[in-house]
Amino acid sequence: MTEHDVLFVAEHRHGDLRDVSYEGITAGRRLADALGGDLHVAVVSGPVDRFAESLNTPEVDAIHTVDAGEEFDHDTYAAATGALHADLDPAALVFPNSVNGLDYAPAVADELGLPYATDAVGLAYDDGLTVTREMYGSKVETTVDVAADQFVVSIRGGEWAAASGAGDAEVSAFEFDEASVDDGSRVKGFEEVGGGDVDIGEAEFLVSIGRGIEEEENLDLIRELCEATGATLSSSRPIVDSGWLPKNRQVGQSGKQVTPKVYLAIGISGAVQHVAGMKGAETIIAVNTDPNAPIFDIADYGIVGDLFDVVPALIEEFN
Amino acid sequence: MAMKILVTVKEVAAVEDDFEIDGLAIDERYLEYDLNEWDDYAVESAVQIAEAADEDVEVVAATIGPERSEETIRMALAKGADRAVRVWDDAIADQQLLDVNAKVSVFEQVVAEEEPDLVLTGVQAADDSFGATGVALANRVDYQWAAVVNDLDYAAGDERATVRRELEGGVEEITEVDLPAVLSIQTGINEPRYASLRGIRQAQQKEITPFDLADLGLDAESVDGALELTAMYEPESESDATIFEGDAEETAAELAGVLRDKGVVGE
Ligand SMILES: Cc1cc2nc3c(=O)[nH]c(=O)nc-3n(C[C@H](O)[C@H](O)[C@H](O)COP(=O)(O)OP(=O)(O)OC[C@H]3O[C@@H](n4cnc5c(N)ncnc54)[C@H](O)[C@@H]3O)c2cc1C
Ligand SMILES: Nc1ncnc2c1ncn2[C@@H]1O[C@H](COP(=O)(O)O)[C@@H](O)[C@H]1O
Asked: What region holds the Electron transfer flavoprotein alpha/beta-subunit N-terminal domain (chain A) (predicted)?
């Protein structure tokens, strides 16, 4: 019987499995238990035997390795996971909602003709799948029922605990027709960006500014605060997108991960991609006009107020 | 033959600080509508390709949205798109949640109609954030694709584009994509222009062609997705933050105290 099974596809880059691979095992195991089936984990490309060993935790029932190329290539991933799905015929196909997940999971779901619920923060199965998702930048949560026996979901990183420990899942090499892989797009290389004069990852005290600052000129106010307190200036993405600060100041999923002693977030809503970069800070303080801003969920201290009132008063405190 | 770029643009709602949920939606009174941030960047990318070209490049904006959204779609026209198509239907209005499948079935027909060389979408819609429409569409219409593109090197007439895909942790992947292709555009790829007064005036003359499902050879079933929205609620606050009360001076003084306690600022 395979119609109760779950297939989760792991993710890696430059020879390392990414955290979401272990989180997906936890999410997949719970879903498989609710469905009454097995958890299969697939790992595509790279040193697959070494990866299979790491992924072989007690939660996993079977591991499928696809030895094809080194790094992520969406055509290879789409073809391999599609072929594996046809072979295993699982109820659930689970992907990480990562940047690479965004680059092939929708194509696989469409090719299989299956419904696709993305960016799940919760999964429940009781006669049918219910997915918990957020909307409007985490301001509301929703539940979505999926009326189908077979479905595809992607899971948000950091929402499930990482699986660990050694298991005894059977590892098998999955062969598929590599000649069938499209080559209409080709990965040429990688580049690290965001280097430069400051490393916000080293700072002990970060004052981080977001879209609440409204205008580039207003950044002077925040610079003044940094001067008065000796803090290092960082920001959310829109500030960098607008060209007001260089890329090396951006905190978040596509910027830097920081773990300062104190992170003071001013006019930042706390979007998941931002939080991914700063939730490891020892103390988080938020200043925001919106009492419902998600940043308050992870803050230790907060001021619900206008930064244009609070920041001058704070500068005053240190001058 | 002249080149054509299709840009999908969505009118999205942002929620005010204080709001109420009415059933499965946020009460209209607390919503503010605007062009999806990611699509603004996609429009700019398309218009820049058109402006840099010697040949004729037509930029067509496509949306699935009610009549109200025309105001927002006109912003794309004011910024340089040549014309727009807007798809709407009672059967679409009936869907609480238009899932990826449903949207792709609609855009598949728009692509069949327009036969664009390049399709630009946003990475995600800021409201329901599926982050899936562009890549699913590419698969459906058999185009090449790249998701989360934050740099695009392409000149009209080229047979391929060189893009950068923005991965996690400050790593970018450099990828070559053959046309026809769908690219999902990330914020920061360019500086979206403000619509000029002249652009806004010209946009009034540009055409927004309305289509219903029948016009596209579709029926109600083609937008009846398997996903059903069953609840919407404010997430239970996990916050155990200490919130400082008082005016700016009082709260700032408390905050300063915390900073001193933590030893990150001097006396
Ligand atoms: C693939 C991907 C990767 C991403 N990577 C990153 C990343 O690395 N880093 C990142 O930050 N984002 C990233 N994002 C973007 C992210 O989704 C959010 O759009 C972004 O973090 C929002 O930034 P913000 O909080 O500054 O702006 P907003 O969400 O607009 O929030 C502004 C906040 O300021 C408050 N405010 C307004 N006026 C005032 C005032 N006068 N005083 C006090 N508060 C005020 C508002 O209440 C609001 O909460 C990524 C998105 C995607 C799709
Ligand atoms: N209703 C819609 N009308 C027009 N474009 C849309 C619509 N829904 C999604 N899109 C496009 O698809 C992108 C990704 O959206 P999504 O997959 O819904 O997060 C958006 O940035 C838009 O370009």
From this structure: 6-187
Are the C-beta atoms of A194 and B170 separated by less than 8 Å? yes
Cβ of A231 within 8 Å of Cβ of B174? The answer is: no
Are the CB atoms for B146 and B163 separated by under 8 Å?
yes
Edge to edge, what strands does the sheet with A232-235 contain?
A: A232-235, A205-209, A262-266, A283-288, A301-304, B242-243
DSSP assignment of A245-257, as one string? Answer: S-GGGBBSTTSB-
pLDDT per position as a tens digit, A66-107: 999 999 999 999 999 999 999 999 999 999 999 999 999 999
- Given a contact cutoff of 8 angstroms between Cβ atoms, the answer to whether A266 and A299 are in contact is no
Residues pairing with A180 in the sheet: none
- Closest to B187 (Cα-Cα) out of A10, A145, A15, A255: A255
pTM as predicted: 0.97
Token representation of residue A98: 């990562």
Element (H, E) at A173: strand A170-173
Interface with A, mutate which of B30, B135, B178, B183 (most A CBs under 10 A): B135
What is the per-residue pLDDT across B74-131, written as a single tens digit (0 to 9) for each?
999 999 999 999 999 999 999 999 999 999 999 999 999 999 999 999 999 999 999 9
CB contact under 8 A, B259 and A192: no
